[in-house]
Amino acid sequence: MTDVSVPAVSDPSQPEAVLGRRALERLDLLLLTVESLDLNGGEAMLWATRQLGFETVFPNRVELWKRRCHNPLRRSTRRGSLAAVETEALIRILCAMADRLYPLLHQLLSSKEPAHLTEQRWALLDQRLGDLIEERMNLRRGAIQRLLDGQQAMPLQRQLVLTLALAAGPGGVDRLRASLLDPTP
User: Fold this and answer.
1) From CA 19, how far away is CA 56, in angstroms rounded?
2) Helix 84-109 vs helix 150-167: angle between axes, to the nearest 10 degrees?
3) Stretch 56-67: mean pLDDT, rounded?
4) Closest by Cα among 2, 50, 25, 27 to 143
5) Angle, nearest 10°, between helix axes 84-109 and 21-37?
6) What phi, psi does 137 have (nearest 5°)?
7) What is d(CA 90, CA 165) in angstroms, rounded to the nearest whole number?
8) d(C-alpha 43, C-alpha 134), whole Å
9) Neighbouring residues of 28: CB distance < 8 A, sequence distance ≥ 6
10) pLDDT digits (tens, 9 = 90+) for 105-130
11) What gap in Å lies between CA 121 and CA 32, rounded to an integer?
12) Which of 56, 116, 137, 183 has the highest CB neighbour number within 10 Å of its CB?
């Protein structure tokens, strides 16, 4: 994992990003994609939380889970919005995870990999992501049905992986934040 300098959580120079409904959905789907790519994704997120110094924001896995449940597409959802500090922490955790998973993201997006191997990787991601979505999301929602529909799911999954790849590396936090705050769908 790359060395990421993190400003203090209460740093006034930090952007005051409060995410809207669509951005919360997208952020949680990106975190779900990380869990699909890494079998120990949940544990890795907790490790990244500690490494980045966000123990006060998310002292344990339950608090991290509660913040992710602000996604209105989940089976059990929480009303309201995330505080700017929580939003920034989730964005930074996601970028740290994208850094960690970048070699796999690159393999998925590379045109130089053998076609059959790339197809196997995408099929595995599709299966894992589908299982997590069925387990955690409200299956009656149209957006969730599109993520589970074979023909519609692939472009959406590709977009999630591409977003994770762009969130990796220097400037990834700023790119991800700008992407989430962009009002266009």
Assistant:
1) 20
2) 110
3) 88
4) 25
5) 50
6) -105, 160
7) 16
8) 21
9) 68, 70, 71, 73, 74
10) 999 998 888 889 989 999 999 999 99
11) 17
12) 137
